[in-house]
Amino acid sequence: MSQLLPERVDVVLVANTFHGIDDKRAFVEEAAESLRLGGRFVVVNWYDRPCETTTVAGEPRGPPTDLRLSPDDAAAAVLECETFSLKERIELPPYHYGLLFERTTSDSPDDDR
Fold this sequence. Notes:
By secondary structure, the protein is an alpha+beta fold. It has a single domain (2-103), classed as Vaccinia Virus protein VP39 (Rossmann fold, 3-Layer(aba) Sandwich), CATH 3.40.50.150. Helices cover 18% and strands 35% of the residues. The chain is built from two helices and six strands; from the N terminus they run βαβββαββ. It has helices at residues 24-34, 71-79; strands at residues 9-15, 35-46, 55-56, 59-60, 84-92, 96-103. The strands form two sheets. A four-stranded mixed beta sheet has the order 1-2-6-5. The chain is elongated.
């Protein structure tokens, strides 16, 4: 992903899919490579509630219950990379939360790419 960008970006947004990524560490590292120093990584995800309780028009919505991550678990998966710091947790009622991270460390000489 980062190799396809002509320059680093200010924001990487992942909405309603982070729970389904098998190799979260590799994904987060790639997001970090895509961001300029100080750039933001935003994860919007479903709360870890039973799927049957997250309904729209009476129908269950969202990922299977066993894939859902708590905000703490999602944050821990991102912070494992040690490239980001958690800046804000945002409530997105009724079924979602947002996590705002900032890229705080540089591990590459081409950060100005």
